[in-house]
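Ticket #4471: structure output looks truncated?

Reporter: J.K.
Steps to reproduce: submitted the chain below (72 residues) through the standard prediction queue, then opened the result file.
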Amino acid sequence: MQQLIECVPNFSEGRDMAIIKQITDAIQTVDGVMLLDVDPGKATNRTVVTFVGTPDAVVEAAFRAIKRLQSL
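Returned output as attached by the reporter:
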């Protein structure tokens, strides 16, 4: 049986949809990861992202999302 885990990070950007899209695009570049939900919060300027996948894929997707946000 294949193990799956869920990751629910939040990012300090909730207003600029172009930036949010770049974050979610980075997550979706990882094979074995499925993006389940994106919940931007304009009032709090934070976005909560939910994705699942194999443990190694989820770690890689989280790393890529953080790396992408840091480069903006």
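Triage note (M.O.): checked the attachment and the full token line is present. The CA atoms of residues 4 and 54 lie 5 Å apart.
Status: closed, working as intended.
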